[in-house]
Amino acid sequence: MSPTNLAVPLLIIFFYLSFISSQAALPLQTPIQKDHSTSQYVITAYLRTPLKLTKLLLDLGATYTWVNCDDYTSSTYRHVPCNSSVANLLGAYACLDLCDGAPSPNCGNNSFILFPDNPIKPVDYKKVNGVNTAIIDSFALSSTTQGSLALINSFIFSCARTGFLKGLAKGVSGLAALGRSNVSIPVQLNKLYTSYPNCFAICLSGSKSQPGVAHFGSRGPYNFLPGIDLSKSLLYTPLISNPFGKDSDPDKPRASPDYYIGLSSIKVNGKMVALNKSLLAIDGETGSGGTKISTVVPYTKLQSSIYKTFITAFLKEAASSAFNLTTTKPVKPFRVCYPASAVKSTQTGPAVPIIDLVLDRQEVVWKIFGSNSMVRITKNSVDLWCLGFVDGGVNPMVSSWIRGPSVVIGGHQLEDNMLQFDLQSKKLGFSSSILSRGTNCASFKFSTKHV
Ligand SMILES: *[C@@H]1O[C@H](CO)[C@@H](O)[C@H](O)[C@H]1NC(C)=O
Ligand SMILES: *[C@@H]1O[C@H](CO)[C@@H](O)[C@H](O)[C@H]1NC(C)=O
Ligand SMILES: *[C@@H]1O[C@H](CO)[C@@H](O)[C@H](O)[C@H]1NC(C)=O
Ligand SMILES: *[C@@H]1O[C@H](CO)[C@@H](O)[C@H](O)[C@H]1NC(C)=O
Ligand SMILES: *[C@@H]1O[C@H](CO)[C@@H](O)[C@H](O)[C@H]1NC(C)=O
After folding, report:
1. Which domain of life does this protein belong to (predicted)?
2. What is the DSSP letter of 104?
3. Residue 20's pLDDT is what?
4. Are 235 and 191 in a shared domain?
5. What CA–CA distance (Å, rounded) separates 34 from 177?
6. Which residues line ligand 5 (CB under 6 A)?
7. How far is CA 315 from CA 85, 301, 326, 349, 393, in A?
8. 39 and 135 inside one domain
9. Distance, CA 371 to ligand 1 centroid (Å)?
């Protein structure tokens, strides 16, 4: 669905609003649009009463959704009382006992307080005035195939100040949390629509005009043109929990909201890359290391020593007679680029050595073909294909005592791949590039039945 024809379903949404709250609206398919100036993935939700269209940054690694409340009006919002059962779901944070000002989303007595963060530009709390209260209000996602909304009357999220929006795509006023938590969007949907699987899936599109899709409450079918059900072509690997999230204290670990998977080795053109295996495991004392999946990092980040070994292996294989590629002056942030004219093209993008992410077993392999490994750079009279992986440093700190993962699989590597997060079975279903099956994430069969 293009932005221009969003207006029609929106009118219909308001018209039918009074009929939908009792209607089972799962499974639900909702579009995910890429913002090209920031490489962020954005979903459209509806919040408040009356419902208002609200664009949110899609974040697979966030605990709770947050929305700018500095201009928030709604006839139905409520604060979360401290020490309430909802507050317990959110974990121990802080309480605003007394607020002197006029009652508003940011001001209420006995209101539970949260500490939202912006994954693009971390927030300096010293520079952002005021507290961020937890809020309960109406939230909905459009279900494009059924012409209805999946409405959550008592959706739990956090307020945030305008200063939290720095670095987010134009028009975005908050963040949609899909992370591992008690209050992520899929978990709150699942609590309401209990007969549907506790499972969601995303298929990100890099297209400027056509969105990709998120599925909630379904293990399939995921029907794409021309008649392909991608739920039938998934491989599965366990979703791993990192017990040390960035909100951990030395005496009180808090699990990370990120989805980790068990990367055991990397191959380039079928050849094993010699890596320090201890970096691929999650350290049992600090949470450092391991491999997570992120929709807010545009290109896969590799720990410095992994990155160096990996690009050396890639350069060698790309120079071999099968590819015969000679590098040219790279364009930042990339370090390995080839003239586009020297690279042949295939159904799965530029012809370059295939990268295999070998997961929990030798036969469970996430294959990265040229369309996901390479980035086309056409500017300032250059036309290049660059290896779209970046040096992530040496497990930088993510909080005062927690270090980050060794591998962060980023957005460019996720596009045109189907990823299914089965929260019940705690496993990831993945397809590798669906271009090899003759479809792509923008070819989801959004029904236009309701228009
Ligand atoms: C919440 O519980 C804490 C500790 O049990 C207590 O000190 C505080 O007064 C309680 N707050 C409210 C609003 O009941
Ligand atoms: C989820 O909720 C339970 C209480 O229902 C709480 O004990 C647990 O700490 C919560 N998990 C997280 C990650 O906040
Ligand atoms: C909080 O309680 C105090 C004292 O009861 C009251 O004066 C104040 O207006 C209340 N604040 C809000 C935001 O309701
Ligand atoms: C492998 O990585 C671990 C963790 O960073 C480090 O302690 C160890 O020295 C490394 N081993 C080698 C051989 O580089
Ligand atoms: C490899 O490429 C170079 C130029 O980049 C060319 O001269 C050479 O003939 C090519 N070799 C093969 C085997 O294609």
Report:
1. Eukaryota
2. B
3. 43
4. no
5. 17
6. 321, 324, 326
7. 55, 18, 9, 18, 20
8. yes
9. 54
User: Ligand 3 pocket, 122 CB below 6 A?
Assistant: no
What pTM did the predictor assign?
A: 0.92
Full residue range of the structural domain in which residue 322 is found: 228-443
In the chain, the amino acid numbered 208 is K
For residue 326, the CA-to-ligand 5 centroid distance in Å is 9
Q: Whose CA is nearest to atom 8 of ligand 1?
A: 83
Q: How many domains does the chain have?
A: 2
What is the spatial distance between Cα 187 and Cα 170, in angstroms, rounded to a whole number? 28
| Identity of the residue numbered 252 | K
Are 188 and 245 within one domain? no
Q: How far apart are CA 434 and CA 427, in angstroms?
A: 20
* pLDDT at residue 301 is higher than 50: yes
Please state the length of the chain: 451
Domain boundary among 147, 181, 196: 196
Q: Is the CB of 279 under 6 A from ligand 4?
A: yes
Q: Answer whether 86 contacts ligand 2 (Cβ < 6 A).
A: no
d(CA 303, CA 281): 13
Cβ atoms of residues 43 and 58 within 8 Å: yes
Under 8 Å between Cβ of 112 and 90: yes
pLDDT at 144: 67
Cβ partners under 8 Å of residue 373, min gap 6:
349, 352, 355, 387, 388, 389, 413
Q: Tokens at residue 361, please?
A: 């077993």
Please report the pLDDT score of residue 4 as a whole number.
41
Q: Which two tokens stand for residue 280?
A: 């691929």
Cβ of residue 255 lying under 6 Å from some atom of ligand 2: yes
Question: Which CATH number belongs to the domain containing residue 102 in this structure?
Answer: 2.40.70.10
Q: Which of 321, 323, 324 gets mutated to test ligand 5 (max ligand atoms within 8 A of its CB)?
A: 324
Confidence of residue 363 (pLDDT cuts 50, 70, 90): very high
Please report which ligand is nearest the Cα atom of 286.
4
Looking at all shown ligands, the one closest to residue 303's CA atom is 4
Residues 110-135: tens digit of each pLDDT? 999 999 999 999 998 888 877 899 99
- The mean per-residue pLDDT over the stretch 19-23 comes to 44
User: What ligand is nearest to the CA atom of residue 88?
Assistant: 2
Count CA atoms closer than 13 A to 87's CA, side-chain side: 17
pLDDT digits (tens, 9 = 90+) for 254-288: 999 999 999 999 999 999 999 999 999 999 988 99
